[in-house]
Amino acid sequence: VYGGIDGAVTTLAIVAGVAGAGLPNSVIVVLGCANILADGFSMAAGNYAGTKADIDDRNRIVAVEERHIRDYPDGEKAELREILLQRGLTGDILESAVNEIASQKQKWIDIMLTEEYGLPRDAPNPWRLAFATFFAFILAGSVPLAPYLLSLQNPFVISVIATLATFFAIGAIKSRWSLSAWWRSGLGTLMIGSIAATVAYLVGSAFQM
User: Using CA atoms, how far apart are residues 140 and 146, in angstroms rounded to an integer?
Assistant: First the structure.
């Protein structure tokens, strides 16, 4: 979703800005393609680096928990007992659960990561996230350029309409991970893209040759 929105926004901004400046369509194609490849790679690399940093921090926390379990087992058991107590376990069931979990170090650490630090149980895959970002950027970013690459009539109008439809579609898809209705999420993303395109077109018009 993030890669798709950014790809569509930045490429449409280039198309609108160049069109507003009255430059040839060939300039739009060159700048648009350069943006898709360079900015898409930059976003993927940034996503990879950020995810890798999160994994490194996760590994650091795991090492800390392993050291605490080794050096201060009673204190860590007390923390585990408090976590399970807040989950509703009491009495013999609570003690049995504490002892069972404490006998399996990896399960113990997983629970501490989730409950104490708010981290997901499984670490993300930086390569998969980077590829997903790059693919989404390329796919959505190609929409504003397609009318120019296909040499269609009135390419700017078609580009804007197709990209705005893409904004709405991305927003609607984004609603799967939110509480917003699909049409409201779609309209919100559509508004963001429309503002970006309008600003770029007006800036380009100011430098019209």
Answer: 10
User: How far apart, in whole angstroms, are the C-alpha atoms of residue 206 and residue 22?
Assistant: 10
Q: Is the pTM of this model over 0.85?
A: no
Best CA proximity match to 159, nearest among 134, 172, 142: 142
39's CB contacts (< 8 A; 6+ apart) are 6, 7, 10, 137, 141
Which tokens sit at 201?
A: 């077109």
Q: Establish how many alpha carbons lie within 13 A of residue 71's alpha carbon, considering only the half-sphere containing its beta carbon.
A: 6
Q: What is the pLDDT of residues 119-129, one digit of tens each?
A: 887 888 999 99
Q: Tokens at residue 156, please?
A: 């700017």
CA distance 168 to 119: 32
Q: For the residues of 91-119, what is the DSSP string, one character each?
A: HHHHHHHHHHHHTSHHHHHHHHHHHHS--
8 and 200 Cβ atoms separated by less than 8 Å? no
Helix (H) or strand (E) holding 1: none
Find the distance separating the first CA and the last CA of the chain, reported in whole Å: 36
Report the mean per-residue pLDDT for the chain.
88
Cα–Cα distances in angstroms (integers) from residue 132 to residues 40, 54, 138, in the given order: 11, 18, 10
